[in-house]
Design a protein that fits this description.
The complex is a heterodimer.
Chain A: H1 6-13, H2 25-28, H3 41-44, H4 55-76, H5 87-117, H6 121-146, H7 157-160, H8 167-181, H9 185-215, H10 218-234, H11 238-247, H12 251-280, H13 290-308, H14 317-337, H15 352-361, H16 369-381, E1 417-421, E2 424-428, H17 431-439, H18 441-444, H19 450-456, H20 464-470, H21 490-497
Antiparallel strand pairs in A: 1-2
Helix pairs in contact in A: 4-10, 5-6, 5-8, 5-9, 5-12, 6-10, 8-12, 9-10, 9-11, 9-12, 9-13, 11-12, 12-14
Chain B: H1 25-30, H2 50-60, H3 80-103, H4 112-122, H5 125-142, H6 146-176, H7 186-192, H8 194-207, H9 212-241, H10 245-272, H11 278-302, H12 310-324
Classes of the chains: A mainly alpha, B mainly alpha.
Chain lengths: 498, 329
């Protein structure tokens, strides 16, 4: 008799639920950690993951994947790629590693929640691989930037960023702690595996890998592709959970979880993906605008997946499409202006040619976002660099923790969305961020944004130096400066000379 | 703020730069990775949120104390990459065992009485190991340092490895002995057979021991050693006497993972015992949990055929393990 196929025994390995007698089931699977929706255990036992793998296959395939990723790195580590590397791409790497490495690690703890508290044995087994995957992603994305430390102190943020109170990190942690670390196994599966991984990151990695290849960064491209192949597998944990929720009369709750998580992740995603695609990657190497990417890969595909599962298009879909035109352009302006507060060197990258491209991709860009950069350009052309550093403090959204902003120029759309709760006024950047607060005020109230902390006494006194120190600037490394030392204004000088 | 001249290029992460020797790959990718241990409120949401309260109560207020859990190191320095290399090799070996015994029609040569023992005392073990998989994953969520989390994570994965192999054997045995109740009978045995009720009580109670350090004590000092000694070692020995060379060799392969678990368990206990007061805390927990472990061993071993000394041997080994940690009774 030949050896058995995986399908011969797979179901036995996921037939592991039993009825506890020595402790109450509610104590073994507390609803706040497991399933708050009261869906019968028998229903959860129908959970069927589309992608199947055995432990034996897992360790073999992952060994091979690692062998490839690490050997490409080793082979290319003596190449001259990082000598004279464009600081725009270096900023992509610095931002990516700082935002991602430890987030992946906390994700392994989140997967462990599903391993322990998932009501379905299938989910528990699949999440065991998911947990290992996330360990892999954390370790790869620590090991690879570690090699770059002798080149640039900013790479220390790959490990340190998440331990700081940098404003960008507070935004990331608030969102990840909300959708990932402080959810029960089921809601977390919907929010992280479906809304975040299936909806955004899995597709983003495809794009990021293409960008890296265009840049000639084969080590990074290969690593991201390898990570994406894991993500494609464990992201499948979300959709069976949604199907079971819908079948058991919990469609509204599933819909809300998906919509909350997608919007929260979108607000971060636009910064970590949109700004690099439209500003940091040199013009010659851009393969798509962020808007094109969003419409091709996210708007169409995600919406289709949502509806195929039996959910509805999120209520804020038109607002999302509008945000695609604005949010990352605003934040590029904000981050560049506040460049001493970040751990990378954001290039302004809005010379004449880049502006032409932006106008083509985002008609009206010159009359709106362009007016902001006109002032900056004028100051730089006239040796008033100091005037390119703002002296005011932005208003921060009490949900996404990102400065509140919107389209400048004639179509001025900047406004703050406010909400009173228990005597405190909360400020939000958009209607969806305000809506998320109202879905669960107990969860979000009392949290202080970075600017709230300047007034509450946590950063005391709130001098510029103290604020920067609080954010890890001048502690982990120096802050950022213009990635191209303002060379992007040279084109305007040439135009003026003509 | 520090003067900019202080920011010279680094050879390693700033948090490891102070140590004299060059950090290993293990240290580079494994140390200080939790962001929830940095501040008083673990997660960046309202302090009253259930999960914040859970971590404050069951992790940060644990009676087992250490001022620097991050200083713990896995004695095996296992990282994801090396784990897969090692386990792929181990699994290749197990594939070889299964193939070889299969080619010799091993299952066709087993006597009916032994097949019945396998149906009652071996294949229901997937529930037992799955419970250990879940318990280990609780430690992954709750341990106060990434170097501890990682050990627990690989321990959880190891359990899934053997859950899978038991499932594999369950199917094979069902083909050789369709009437013996394989595949469909295990849950009934796990829930009702006298041999398993001690283990089931032990695991159910361990799974709800939510203080992270008590959970670690119950799982790694009591439950896992009891499983290793009674289910893995004693059943393996009986298998040898019954002419079931395959099960004996599978259990031997299983012990390789158990030995690694014990190495980090010993290191973590040694690390915790550096702190005054921890010995009493651990001692009290061992006193509380060990009787449940002994009862599980007694009930299970009593059902093993022709194995009168199995329970005393198993309990002796478990006790010796804890005595080696400085926590003998």
């Amino acid at each position: 008799m030949p050896l058995l196929e995986r399908s011969d025994w797979y179901d036995i390995a996921r037939d592991t639920n039993w009825t506890p007698d020595f402790v109450p089931r509610e104590e073994l699977f507390p609803s706040e950690l497991s399933d708050p929706y009261d869906i019968p255990q028998a229903e959860w036992e129908t959970f069927d993951e589309p992608y199947k793998v055995s432990y034996r296959e897992y360790v073999k395939v992952q060994r091979e994947k690692d062998s490839s990723a690490y050997s490409v790195k080793a082979a290319l580590s003596r190449s001259k790629f990082h000598d004279g590397l464009d600081e725009g791409w270096a900023s992509v790497l610095k931002l990516h590693y700082g935002a991602v490495a430890l987030t992946e690690y906390q994700a392994s703890q989140f997967q462990a929640r599903m391993v322990r508290f998932g009501p379905s044995p299938s989910m528990r087994n699949m999440a065991t691989y998911g947990m290992l995957d996330e360990l892999r992603h954390a370790q790869l994305q620590l090991y690879f930037p570690h090699e770059l430390l002798p080149r640039d102190r900013h790479y220390d943020w790959a490990h340190e960023a998440a331990h700081t109170n940098n404003w960008a990190i507070l935004g990331g942690r608030h969102a990840m702690d909300d959708v990932m670390m402080c959810r029960d196994a089921i809601t977390g599966a919907i929010m992280v595996s479906f809304a975040f991984e299936t909806g955004l990151t899995n597709l983003q990695m495809v794009g990021l890998s293409t960008d890296a290849t265009n840049m000639g960064d084969f080590t990074f491209a290969n690593m991201i592709t390898s990570i994406q192949s894991d993500e494609a597998r464990h992201a499948q944990l979300g959709s069976p959970a949604i199907e079971i929720m819908i079948k058991n009369g919990r469609k509204a709750e599933a819909q809300q979880a998906v919509d909350v998580a997608f919007w929260r992740m979108w607000r971060l995603f636009a910064i970590t993906v949109g700004i690099p695609m439209d500003y940091y990657i040199p013009l010659e190497q851009r393969h798509l605008s962020f808007k094109e990417f969003m419409h091709e890969w996210i708007i169409r595909q995600y919406d289709r997946q949502v509806r195929e599962l039996g959910l509805e298009t999120p209520w804020y879909w038109d607002l999302l499409k509008d945000d695609i035109e604005n949010h990352h352009h605003c934040q590029q302006g904000g981050i560049w202006s506040w460049r001493p507060t970040v751990w990378w060197n954001p290039p302004g990258a809005v010379g004449p040619r880049e502006r032409e491209w932006l106008e083509e991709k985002y008609p009206g860009w010159n009359d709106s976002f362009g007016t902001y950069w006109d002032v900056i350009t004028d100051n730089l052309l006239n040796d008033r660099e100091e005037k390119t550093h703002p002296e005011c403090i932005p208003i921060i959204c009490n949900m996404c923790q990102i400065p509140i902003s919107n389209r400048p120029g004639k179509l001025w759309k900047a406004r703050v969305y406010q909400h009173e709760h228990e005597g405190r006024r909360y400020n939000f950047c958009t209607e969806p961020c305000r809506w998320i607060f109202t879905t669960d005020p107990e969860r979000y109230k009392k949290h202080e944004s970075i600017v709230d902390r300047m007034y509450s006494g946590e950063i005391n006194p709130p001098t510029l130096d103290n604020v920067l120190t609080y954010m890890g600037i001048g502690v982990v490394s120096e802050g950022g400066h213009d990635g191209h030392d303002y060379r992007w204004i040279d084109g305007f000088r040439a135009q003026a000379a003509e | 703020m520090t003067d900019s001249s202080d920011f010279k290029p680094l050879k390693t992460w700033s948090h490891l730069a102070g140590q004299r020797r060059r950090p290993s790959e293990y240290e580079i990718v494994s140390t200080n990775l939790l962001w929830s241990t940095d501040k008083e409120v673990p997660w960046e949401l309202a302090p009253g949120v259930h999960m914040n309260q859970w971590y404050l109560k069951y992790r940060d207020a644990s009676p087992l104390k250490h001022s620097d859990w991050n200083a713990f190191r896995d004695p095996d320095e296992m990282v994801y990459r090396t784990y897969n290399i090692m386990q792929d090799g181990q699994e290749t070996y197990v594939d070889g065992l299964l193939d070889e015994y299969n080619a010799n029609d091993h299952d066709g040569g087993l006597n009916a009485a032994w097949i019945q023992q396998l149906a009652e005392l071996y294949t229901p073990g997937r529930y037992l190991l799955h419970a250990a998989q879940m318990g280990s994953a609780y430690l992954v969520q709750m341990a106060p340092a990434s170097t501890i989390v990682n050990c627990a994570m690989l321990q959880s994965a190891d359990q899934l490895r053997w859950v899978s192999r038991i499932a594999y054997r369950t199917k094979e045995l069902s083909l050789a002995a369709p009437e013996a109740g394989f595949v469909d009978g295990e849950r009934g045995h796990w829930q009702g057979h006298a041999a398993w009720q001690g283990f089931r009580e032990l695991m159910e109670r361990t799974l709800v021991a939510y203080d992270w350090a008590e959970h670690f004590t119950a799982l790694n000092l009591v439950a896992k050693p009891a499983i290793d000694e009674a289910f893995v070692r004693q059943l393996g020995s009986v298998a040898r006497r019954e002419g079931d060379g395959l099960l004996q060799q599978l259990m031997d392969a299983h012990q390789t993972d158990n030995a690694r678990s014990r190495r980090w368990t010993k290191s973590l206990i040694g690390f915790a015992l550096e702190i005054d007061g921890n010995k009493d805390v651990l001692g009290e927990w061992v006193t509380k949990w060990a009787p449940l472990g002994d009862a599980a061993i007694d009930a299970y071993c009593a059902a093993l055929p022709n194995a009168d000394s199995a329970a005393s041997e198993a309990k002796g080994e478990v006790e010796a393990f804890r005595a080696d940690l400085g926590l003998g009774r």
